[in-house]
Amino acid sequence: MMPESPSHAELRLCKRLQLSDASAASLIAAMRAGASSRQAVVLTPLAPQDYVPPFACVDTTAWGWLPPAVFVPVEGEKPTAHADYREKGYYYSLDLSSCWESAALAVVPQPGSSLDMCAAPGGKTMLMAARHLPQHHVANEVSPSRRGILRQNLEHCGVPNTEVTGLRPDQWGAAGQVFDLLLVDAPCSGQSLLAKGIRNPGCLGASMVNGNAKRQKGILLAAVRCVAPGGHLLYTTCTYDPDENEKVIAYILKRMPSWRAVEVPELAPFRSALVDFPAYRLLPEHGFGAGGFCCLLKNT
Ligand SMILES: C[S@@+](CC[C@H](N)C(=O)[O-])C[C@H]1O[C@@H](n2cnc3c(N)ncnc32)[C@H](O)[C@@H]1O
Questions:
Q1: Which domains are seen in the chain, by residue range?
Q2: How far is the CA of 184 from the centre of ligand 1 (A)?
Q3: pLDDT for residue 250 is more than 90
């Protein structure tokens, strides 16, 4: 049932997402309830072979998209309370939606080199390390304080072959260095924070969304210059607005004729109906956390 008096901004978002009445009501209710957060953990390179976390986990065998080495605690479990997490660094705790966003890496061949351009606090790098550990990985973060946390997390979890850097995307674009795989987990308006119960004033407003869309286009224009021919770029956000998601990708595809969006069979149930290229969106109604967006691009 539609919550009472949806705001103009909530209705505007649902209209732009072309949601059915039922899905619109579900999204608005989720943003208001703030109870859609779902925790997950990913095993780190320090975890012993055949390691099983010391807490009860959900049966995820039917979740075809779930990345390897990811476990989902049953409600009430506290994975971060265990010594295996705090002292041994056997697993890293993150949001289930963040794991979903990395699912597209299933169709990327093992990269020799990779760059996580917006890496702190390190979740996407950990997810990538659990799937494909490249010979050389760069975890880059522009914010000095967040870079410190990133470095600590990577060290604590024993992620090898990884260099931590702090260049801006335009500096990377001008550096002339190319990688087989780029991760761009872009700064965004963070609308899904509402569905996690985290206050995020203004995140549904046009000025916040437009400002982020402009920044995301700039980051991606620089990022595509860092991808080797035949290489891939995974673009992800934790926001719902099409202007920061499908429209950013459409902008890049229009300007970069050698790039195309790649189909990810594992994510077929999440395919965005807003565009004719493969892009994927998660909403709270799917039941895998507060939501997100991902699109895998290939430099053909
Ligand atoms: C969504 S967070 C990254 C989360 C991280 N990938 C993870 O999974 O743990 C986006 C990051 O982009 C950084 N950032 C902010 N503005 C940026 C910019 N203009 N260019 C590149 N990165 C930026 C933020 O400091 C933030 O750490």
A1: 8-299 (3.40.50.150)
A2: 8
A3: yes
